[in-house]
Amino acid sequence: MTASVVVTGLGVVAPNGLGAKDYWSATRVGKSGIGPLTRFDASPYPAKLAGEIDGFVAEEHLPSRLMPQTDQVTRLSLVAADWALADAGVNPAELPAFDMGVITASSAGGFEFSQNELKSLWSKGGEYVSAYQSFAWFYAVNTGQISIRNGMKGPSGVVVTDQAGGLDAVAQARRQIRKGTSLVVAGAVDALLCSWGWVGLHTSGRLSTEQDPARAYLPFDDRAAGHVPGEGGALLILESADSARARGAKVYGEIAGYAATFDGREPGLRKAVELALADAGMVPSDVDVVFADGAAEPELDRIEAQALVEVFGERGVPVTAPKTMTGRLYAGAAALDLATAFLAMEAGLIPATAHTEPADRYGLDLVVSQPRTADVRTALVIARGHGGFNSAMLVRS
Amino acid sequence: MSQATFTLDDLKRILLEGSGAPEGGGLDGDSLDTEFSDIGYDSLALLETASRIEREYGIELDESVMGEATTPRVFIDAVIGHLAVPAA
């Protein structure tokens, strides 16, 4: 039940870098992927900035047969999974199908695909709706297509808890590995930068309407006024430590602890962090860096800062939010933060929170302006999903 | 309205438009009697193809075409059979 679960591969698709190497090169020097929306005409909408992935040509990576049946989010997911498997040195064709699973999180499914089919439905008629609409929009579609492409028939699923999902999926994968599955592809990629998705995002009331990319997404700043949405995320290869060792795999580190809570009368975030520490058998002083959720809403920032101060003490641990360089990627964000935590441990470097000038009243040691050299052995990743989801995960080198 | 013929080229074109090319070749003259599933097209690809043929040729294919026409030859013959039937 307590078998160690490790990460052996990373597949990253982010607005500021395609592939873990490019993403880390950009992130470590503070290069942002946020800019004016170009995917469609955003001029009629209050929010006009996004973290778009540029230069991703799906046809260069995936067979033609998959194009008519996939949304952008599934294409990104399939490629991220391919890259993660390659990074782990795993050839799925050589492994027993039922020993491999796929568990992803999703907050939106294939929005743009659906938008196009709805357009056909209303302008031309039901007979013009693609048969592939039956699954291409669906939350579980990324899991399904990764499973089919790689012949992975073991325990699989999808979790839908907004940004917390990126951690919840990895936690679910850890449970399955502890039950005996050798390898699970886990994490999340989200992408909904189409006009229909954009309208939906506005209903949260949490989008920044600032038009200057350097002032639009400022968690823990007195000027914080919402977030910039982005697309992308990360998929990770999880294995039992024993099986990773047996095949001589490179190991990024361990999924050491996890907990999830739900907000009730009181915010549940602090409890999630405490339970994750207990799950890992750690104390707060073991933690070298916190990857914050960083909502950039004054009340949500206050709750997060308060939880961190209560657990770690005032300015008791370095905190960073590199998602200021990508925008919030919803379920993809937390998975990307996990990948970033492993890259930070490898490099001994905490990437900075871009653009933010932290308000003193929060009492955080926020890493800003420049990345900070540090011996990072343990990282805490926090993710909150819209509606009250809190998840916390500890990773250890 | 209806066109009189339906050939392997028509089937190939519509499959490609609606469902893309499977890895490892796809449809050619030699695969007329190969099961669609062995060519790389699943039941959903055939559903999409049938729907596109119905739109383009102004016909309605029986449900049975989907279940029974598991090879290109049988599928093409079934479509031709519908083309020959005058509109009711």
TrEMBL record, chain A:
Keywords: Acyltransferase, Transferase. The keyword Transcription does not apply. The keyword Acyltransferase applies. PROSITE patterns: KS3_2 (PS52004). CDD domains: CLF (cd00832). Residues 2-397 form the Ketosynthase family 3 (KS3) domain. InterPro entries: Beta-ketoacyl_synthase (IPR000794), Ketoacyl_synth_C (IPR014031), Ketoacyl_synth_N (IPR014030), PKS_Beta-ketoAc_synthase_dom (IPR020841), Thiolase-like (IPR016039). Transmembrane segments: none annotated. Gene3D superfamilies: 3.40.47.10. Belongs to the thiolase-like superfamily. Beta-ketoacyl-ACP synthases family. PANTHER family: POLYKETIDE BETA-KETOACYL SYNTHASE 2-RELATED, POLYKETIDE SYNTHASE-RELATED. This is Actinorhodin polyketide putative beta-ketoacyl synthase 2.
UniProtKB/TrEMBL annotation, chain B:
Residues 2-83 form the Carrier domain. Gene3D superfamilies: ACP-like. InterPro entries: ACP-like_sf (IPR036736), PKS_PP-bd (IPR020806), PP-bd_ACP (IPR009081), Ppantetheine_attach_site (IPR006162). It comes from the Bacteria. Keywords: Phosphopantetheine, Phosphoprotein. Pfam families: PP-binding. Transmembrane segments: none annotated. This is Actinorhodin polyketide synthase acyl carrier protein. The lineage of its organism: Bacteria, Bacillati, Actinomycetota, Actinomycetes, Kitasatosporales.
